[in-house]
Amino acid sequence: MPFLEVNDFPGADGRAPVARAEAARHMTAVLARCWGIDPAIISCYFQLSPADAYAHAGEMPAPADTRRIFVKLHAIARTADMRRMAAAAVTRAAAQSYDVPEKAVVIYFFERTVSEIAHGGVLEGGTSHMT
Description:
This is 4-oxalocrotonate tautomerase. With 131 residues, the chain is an alpha/beta fold. Helices cover 27% and strands 24% of the residues. It has helices spanning 19-35, 80-98; strands at residues 3-8, 43-48, 69-76, 105-112, 118-119, 122-123. It has a four-stranded mixed beta sheet, with helices on one face.
């Protein structure tokens, strides 16, 4: 934990965008820096949204200029200031990696307490660290 779940769009060739590897590196690095955590505990999952799987304002396929890269950030709860720093840094990293304007990147935080997370079948609530 944390996990970045990135919903993006096919590249010009119809396949997954080549920007994913760069986005994974940059988003991981900036999030680790913002929150003072080890990048080794951050994972990225990418979900491809083809044109027939995304609508905006009721329009499908949505015009390219209305498409949003949707990032769900699953993590233990942080302060509003920490979320604000992460939102700005991860947005910038994603926008640069995908070569889109920052307004085309949307981040939602999905926060949990440590007692709501299990790794390898072990509930994390007994630990005192925040990762």
